[in-house]
Amino acid sequence: MVAVITKVKQKQITQLIDKGKRLDDREPTDYRELKIEQGLIERAEGSARVLLGKTEVVVGTKVEIGEPFADTPNDGVLTVNAELVPLASPGFEPGPPDENSIELARIVDRGIRESKAINTEKLVIDPGKKVFVVFVDIYVLNHDGNLIDASALAAMAALLNTKMGKYEVEDGEVKTKPGYEPLPVKKHPITVTCAKIGDKLIVDPSLEEEQVMDARISIAFDDDDNICAVQKGGAGYFEPKELVEAARIAKEKATEMRKKLNW
Amino acid sequence: MNDKPEKLIDKKGLRLDGRKLDELRPVKLEVGVISNADGSAYIEHGKNKILAGVYGPREVHPKHLALPDRTVLKCRYHMAPFSVQERKSPAPSRREIELSKVIRESLEPAIFMEYYPRTMIDVFIEVLQADGGTRCASITAAALALADSGIPMRDLVVACAAGKIEDKVVLDLMDTEDKVGAADVPVALMPNLNAVTLLQMDGQLSTDEFESAVNLALDGCKQIYALQKEALKTKYINVKEEIKEEAEE
User: Fold this and answer.
1) How many helices (H) and strands (E) does chain B have?
2) Which CATH number goes with the domain that contains B66?
3) ipTM rounded to 2 decimals
4) Do B197 and A237 touch (CB under 8 A)?
5) pTM (2 decimals)?
6) Which portions of chain B are predicted below pLDDT 50?
7) Which residue in the set A110, A115, A236 is minimally distant from B109, CB to CB?
């Protein structure tokens, strides 16, 4: 099941964008109103809710003790999962994660992992044997476009809000101690998505804009303005000069967002 | 096999396998390798060995997925359990599901989807041996298989990666370079339309480095494109000769 859009609406959106205008009166490079709330789920080690226009995403983090990967014995583990829950859109269905939710989780994962946002070395309890495993669960509650940016922001906000229990090791046994400390976060990646409609690029596509777009490109920037993850999506293409333009716009928007969030 | 090499680039500026920074691995392409498939191709890109097969346009299964105005393109990228150092479970991993999606989206712009409403085209990709850059080699082979099946296309699609190792932007990373290196940028191109249909990146690059990596990968694509055209022609020269021989008999 795919959410449907009428031909009339499609034409209206394309024609407006061609003139540099948008259905909701935004400029081509404007984000919708952004609201971030942290710590709303007390049971979770960390949580955040992001409202990007009408798109709503909640991220909860859990921190558990587990085993490290064999090839990285001195690093904690990061696991990102995304659920497109059926109540969020007529296009979402119950069942195991489909390619869209897997892609979403992997884009968010790459942004956090490749920017080295979490200091995973500090998550080691017993090298090669016991480490903290950080689970980031993305829960999409209302789909009105640009799930990638909203989820990436919510994931980062939740990680910044994450506390982990203190512990001590006694004869190889891990014992929890009272009190908490914050998760060691050292970088703050910000992901910006541009959609291509006709020959124009727009930032933060709404659901209706996503339904008419040719393709999208999402670019994650770290604190030093380095690109740390890129993903093109959609069944269209970009000309090389459009890619350069998208990277320029995305960098500008990421810097703007970083200032506003104070990350 | 798991030893990490200390240096990826030696004093002479050559890489582990003796390549220059902007040099491709040897690429071998063959078209029409599976007699049952409507179209097929085989690629050897360095140590990568990959088969691609196309079935369709054919009846849509399950039926409710059929579209009234165009065909449905399906793509399955799959790695054989023996294709990597440690056995990979044959069940599709999250990585394979994501790659199947991005590969499909890289091929779709090249196909005249509206020519075959209410049908389905299946693209199956089997990685027999992997050595870094399998998604790119898969796209190159899959595009050839589609062309071989006779499905009308706007252009071929060809893919190649660039990346960064030891502060240098280099072409076509192999497995070790990808694992130890700083960044990997796979790119797919429709060469005649100058259209990028796949672009991914992980690692860390400045915007300038990113731009030069994309440009380097595009150069690589154009080199492989020449081989792609040769491979298609070779098949049909062979067919022509077979017909001639039969006529003479």
Assistant:
1) 4, 9
2) 3.30.230.70
3) 0.91
4) yes
5) 0.94
6) 1
7) A236
